[in-house]
Amino acid sequence: MFRNFIKILEPFRNNLSRAVAGNGNAFQQNCLSKEEKLREALKKAIPGITYVSIEDISGGCGAMFEISIEAKEFKGLSRVKQHRLVTDSLKSEIAEMHGIRIHTSPSPNGD
Question: 3-state class of 53 per DSSP?
Answer without folding.
Answer: strand
